[in-house]
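ARCHIVE CARD
SHELF: 3
SLOT: left
DATA:
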Amino acid sequence: MHKVLLFALMLFTFSTNAQVIKLRAKKSAFIEYEKKRKVKWNESDFLIIINTTDKKITFYSDDKREFSYYKTIKIPEDTSKSSDTYGSTTLQFKCIDVEGKECNITLAALDKKQSSYNSRVCLLYSSYALMVDVNPE
């Protein structure tokens, strides 16, 4: 199911059809790169919406965080491989937030050996990351 969700998202992202994907966050972890400590996962409940028509990704939690993406990359780009190093297929969105800062948002279909969740969304800035395990809404 999780690979089907990601494949559908990739198909709609690279086509001209309008598509909105809704994902519900169940667990999240905040990571500051300079602080080398074990990642602590917390229960979460917020919504992530990927709108391929408007090229926007929005996180709805206590506050609304909106990102505009200008490029989509399928990882692995080497099509002879079926997955990246984590055993998943990944889409990476090159984004700009409302403050004009560049970041990446990745959506990975997780291998069942890694997680009981279908996918992981990672919001990646130069100094920190937010990892979120999600299921389709």
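SLOT: right
DATA:
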Amino acid sequence: MIKKVFKIAFMAILFLSFSNVSLAQSAKDRWRCQHVVKGLKLSKELSAKFSPVFYAYLKELHQAGDVYDNLKDKYKTQINKCQLSVEQAQQLLNAHWDSDEKQVQVRQKYTQLFGKILKMNYVFYTFKLSNDKAPK
């Protein structure tokens, strides 16, 4: 009986951990991946290889921008009221440039990774399609 309870608990934990991965992807990211796959007209086989790499790309791209976004959120009131101090403005600018640099590095890294799955012209269109705005 105890073994059965542990087995069920273990399976539940596994299920929840895998379901959290898909829950962690925002609706916008899911739309973006579907939009790219559809736009590139990828086969199911290529889509299965491409999608996990694309989600990893989006995650790293978001992380690269998080420092700036978090700082911008911190100073939101001052920004809206045009009351940033010189130091706050410098902090924001530095964070913005750092985030931009990190995002370029992520794009360069994933150009190579996408190139292992897709032809380079498809990689180009991957980045182009991934910048399209999700419908509201």
